[in-house]
Amino acid sequence: MRPETDRVKTLGLEVPGWTGHRAGQHVDVRLTADDGYQAQRSYSIASSAGGSRVELTVELIDDGEVSPYLTEEARVGDRFELRGPVGGYFVWDPNPGGPVLLVGAGSGVVPLMAMVRQRAADGDEVRTRLLYSARSWEDVIYRDELERAGQRGDGLEIVYALTREQPPGWTGYGRRVDRELLAEVVPDELALTFVCGPTPFAEAVAEALVGLGHEPSRIKTERFGPTGG
Amino acid sequence: MPIISRGFKGRKRDDAPRDRVPPGQYVTDDFPVLSAGPTPHTPLDQWDFTIVGEVDEVHRWTWDELRALPSETITVDISCVTKWTKLDMVWEGVPVDALLDGVETSAEYVTAFCDGGYTTNLPLADVTGGRAWIAFAYGGEPLEPEHGGPARLLVPHLYFWKSAKWVRGLRLTATDEPGFWESNGYHIYGDPWKEQRYWGD
């Protein structure tokens, strides 16, 4: 188990019989109390495919039911049920036909990180730009790994938008992602976009990209909240 | 025998009427949004609803023609495959029965098709007999675009992905042809009470 931020933790799971997954897919986690009560929620897989290990990155939802358990109660050695992988649409395409844009807000970066990792694991050099919106630098999940990934010179570029608070000397964006910002960040000849974040964010980004002339069928979205768990 | 999750207690048990909440679901007061792509915005003067496929002739309604048909107010519980269930949702819509009335067909299935390219498949029997509507209002207000407006299919007895947003018509088919999510890992039928979420359920 690895803390990512104050509210976000990554859990590494050993899944016997896991047959692999595609970056962007999710799993269902099912918890069972000793009186038989069950609760289940979906979580994006954070890791690239390979072996029987699956990593989930979970954000604590205050009034949630499963995320408080996974982020605060679960310990190394605990067991629970996993179903998946699920989903065949919001998945990394190794042959997108041109540059790819990944746009994530908050924990919406998780399935995009799986794509970044899969791309690196495959030695894939398709031009990819990750635009990541977070409240502050402290809220950026995977920040050390992203910093390294962005410096490898393999065609991955990372652009941050810190909406509430920026560290001293910040040179990235210090505001919300909007149409104007997207117009500056969208790579030339953009072929495919993945957007993941809270509903208002995903709506606004997808709408702005359509407004900028991008083909709606080449904009894949995954929305979450306001509930969750 | 499920694995007991050490230390997991869950929420208190008595807050949801279990006979109204399908297995694996939790009750929410929110109305979450799930869509695979951008929200389409088709102007109403360019909007129509058609019944095509294995039919005697194409049947078509403009927005005004559809809205002129008798509508019903429906209060139903909705379950989404992402695990939320929302109770007592109040919709207004035209029964699909009214649209299929007078359509000659030997088809046994339908594919709902939508702005944005989304499709979903259902047995014809699941959209007839007072079980499905073309809904244009929710909570007494016009249906918002992010929730499928101007109109979405409403099939309350199946998981909500079957209630296709931005619906523009029904294609009647002889065979059950998997739609968008049905081709991407989700169950061909989607009965929440049988927990038919994914392939293999």
Features:
heterodimer; A: 229 residues; alpha/beta; Elongation Factor Tu (Ef-tu), domain 3; Rossmann fold; 2 domains; five-stranded parallel beta sheet; three-stranded antiparallel beta sheet; 11 strands; globular; B: 201 residues; mainly beta; Sulfite Oxidase, Chain A, domain 2; 5% helix
Q: Describe it for me?
A:
The complex is a heterodimer of chains A (229) and B (201). Chain A is an alpha/beta fold. Chain A has helices at residues 67-73, 109-121, 143-150, 179-185, 199-211; strands spanning 2-3, 8-14, 26-32, 38-44, 53-59, 81-86, 100-105, 128-134, 156-162, 192-198, 219-224. Chain A is 21% helix and 30% strand. In chain A, the strands form three sheets. Chain A has a five-stranded parallel β-sheet, sandwiched between helices. Chain A has a three-stranded antiparallel β-sheet with strand order 1-2-5. A three-stranded antiparallel β-sheet of chain A has the order 4-3-6, with no helix packed on it. The two termini of chain A are 19 Å apart. Chain B has helices at 63-68, 96-100; strands at 26-27, 48-53, 59-62, 72-79, 84-95, 109-114, 119-123, 133-138, 141-142, 152-154, 167-173. Chain B has one domain (20-29, 44-194): Alpha-Beta Complex (Sulfite Oxidase, Chain A, domain 2). Chain B has two helices and eleven strands; from the N terminus they run βββαββαββββββ. The radius of gyration of chain B is 18 Å and the shape is globular. The chains are: A alpha/beta (229), B mainly beta (201). The interface between A and B is large, with 45 and 37 residues.
